[in-house]
Design brief:
- By secondary structure, this protein is α/β, with parallel strands linked by helices.
- The protein has one domain: Glutaredoxin, CATH 3.40.30.
- It has five helices and nine strands; from the N terminus they run βββααβαβαββββα.
- A five-stranded mixed β-sheet has the order 5-4-3-8-9.
- The protein is globular and about 40 Å long.
Length: 156
Amino acid sequence: MALAAGTAAPDFTLFQSKGETVTLSELRGNKVVLVFFPAAFTGLCQEELCSFQDALAQFNDMNAKVLGISVDGLFTVMAFKSQNGLEFPVLTDYSRSTVRAYDVALDNFAGMEGYTASQRAVFVIDAEGTIAWSWQGANPGVLPDYDAVAAAVAAA
């Protein structure tokens, strides 16, 4: 089960492109929306991240940074971001350390023994670095309630 509200958000440094990283603690003072998704270039993941892109101005107005996170490799997340016109960082957690820290690792994904992906999950982190709200899908086919995410960001 994903980390609960009130928990200090585990820090991470993940690549978004060759030589460029994002460190969560460096975003303190902003709200952060972490969008964990199972696999780039799948229909539901594309729909989900494009929905966050469509709402990006709303999140920016609430002083919130959106970050997409998957276990896909660096070049895959870079291509996924480019192909979908995403204007927020899409990060690779190829070591799976962040999905494990947030307790959203999905072992044996799609029946592939030994392959760990990410559960579909969203965390809203307040400006002090505490998880203000969290959601995890019952299975990878369930998308988040985008209005609930926006309400959580507004309240954080």
